[in-house]
């Protein structure tokens, strides 16, 4: 006890780096990218300053720049020309996602390519799978949508995706995708499951970016209630038992307690610092209220300290530069 014990001894500026408990590295970061089949030039996303939808032809240059900065993985989201109730363009051989994967694998082979497996960007109703009419409000048909997720995942693997990330929060989605991949000879493709995805108010900018808003209803019947901690654990436990290789908590910053609990399952855990988290930091920094670099790094360190192995963040390229 004081005065014998003085913790400030270890806060000497030369000593601090030697006893630092949590480190953030460029290898921890995954950069999300939006690929838009309908544009010829990058289209800035108003609610996400510094982020743009990319046309296919600009994708290699962007990924090469990320690779040069030390980013080792990207996760892709596609915006197709055509949408329909069954999300046919999500699993088409010439779909925007499939083209994007092939282009990166050809031009930047050192980059790990992860694909978002969902239907919300590809359906004309904006829901994450096949819907059934239920009164005035459509409902997601869980079991009919499982086959669709398997078809999407297999099409991504055929195009060259090296990891698939199902994000629609369907019961049984990991098992359905694992079985579909294995059946088609892709048993080595890992699944990064959005195993604990909350029905958060922080997704608004993403839905603008990915053009994935719902025409009717919302996703609260298949995404999780932010109030539920035990259910969050059970969701990730079930995905682990179904064969997920990496689990994910989304959003990140408001759910650090959930990240900590999910790490006890023994699998690597990814955390998604979502579009609303990005937009709030950007807005406060633009107003001069905070130091953007310091706040971003503090936010990511807190996610790592909670136990995350990987962080998906729109700040990935900036952080890679700051860490250099």
From TrEMBL:
Keywords: Heme biosynthesis, Lyase, Magnesium, Metal-binding, Porphyrin biosynthesis, Zinc. One of its GO terms (cellular component) is cytosol. The active site is at residues 197, 250. Zn(2+) binds at residues 118, 120, 128. Pathway: Porphyrin-containing compound metabolism; protoporphyrin-IX biosynthesis; coproporphyrinogen-III from 5-aminolevulinate: step 1/4. Pfam families: ALAD. Belongs to the ALAD family. This is Delta-aminolevulinic acid dehydratase. It comes from Methanocalculus chunghsingensis.
């Amino acid at each position: 006890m004081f005065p014998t014990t003085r913790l400030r001894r270890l806060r000497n500026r030369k000593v601090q780096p030697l006893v630092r408990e949590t480190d953030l590295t460029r290898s921890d970061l995954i950069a999300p990218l939006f690929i838009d089949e309908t544009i010829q030039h990058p289209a800035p996303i108003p609610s996400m300053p510094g982020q743009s939808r990319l046309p296919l032809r600009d994708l290699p240059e962007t990924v090469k720049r990320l690779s040069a900065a030390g980013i080792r993985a990207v996760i892709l989201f596609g915006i197709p020309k055509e949408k329909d109730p069954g999300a046919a363009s999500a699993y088409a051989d010439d779909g925007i996602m499939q083209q994007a994967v092939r282009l990166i694998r050809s031009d930047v082979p050192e980059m790990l390519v992860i694909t978002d497996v969902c239907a919300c960007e590809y359906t004309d109703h904006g829901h994450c799978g096949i819907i059934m009419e239920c009164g005035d409000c459509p409902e997601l048909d869980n079991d009919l949508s499982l086959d669709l997720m398997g078809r999407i995942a297999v099409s991504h693997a055929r195009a060259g995706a090296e990891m698939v990330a199902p994000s629609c929060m369907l019961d049984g989605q990991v098992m359905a995708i694992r079985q579909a991949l294995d059946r088609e000879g892709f048993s080595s493709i890992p699944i990064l499951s959005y195993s604990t995805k909350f029905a958060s108010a922080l997704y608004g900018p993403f839905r603008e970016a990915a053009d994935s808003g719902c025409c009717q209803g919302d996703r609260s019947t298949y995404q999780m209630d932010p109030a539920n901690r035990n259910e969050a654990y059970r969701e990730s436990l079930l995905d682990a038992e179904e064969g997920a290789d990496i689990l994910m908590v989304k959003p990140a910053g408001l759910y650090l307690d959930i990240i900590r609990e999910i790490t006890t399952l023994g699998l690597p855990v990814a955390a998604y610092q979502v579009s609303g988290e990005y937009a709030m930091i950007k807005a406060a920094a633009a107003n001069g209220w905070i130091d953007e670099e310091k706040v971003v790094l503090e936010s990511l360190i807190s996610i790592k300290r909670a136990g995350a192995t990987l962080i998906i963040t729109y700040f990935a390229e900036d952080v890679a530069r700051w860490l250099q």
